[in-house]
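Narrative of accomplishments. A recurring question from our advisory board has been how the design workflow behaves on a single, concrete structure rather than in aggregate. To address it, we present the structure tokens for one chain from the evaluation set, followed by the sequence designed for it. No filtering or post-editing was applied between the two.
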């Protein structure tokens, strides 16, 4: 199983999963983690202003 976490130029995270039977299930699992990380990042950016 290969998991790739990518941060784009805006700092948002995306995760891609390859090499397993059901990548959609794993990707959905990561989605909630990504949303938490992105929300946390947004809060930090707001507090920096």
């Amino acid at each position: 199983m290969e998991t790739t976490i990518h941060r784009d130029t805006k700092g948002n995270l995306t995760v891609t999963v390859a090499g397993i039977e059901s990548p959609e299930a794993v990707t959905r699992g990561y989605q909630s983690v990504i949303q938490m990380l992105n929300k946390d990042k947004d809060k930090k950016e707001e507090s920096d202003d």
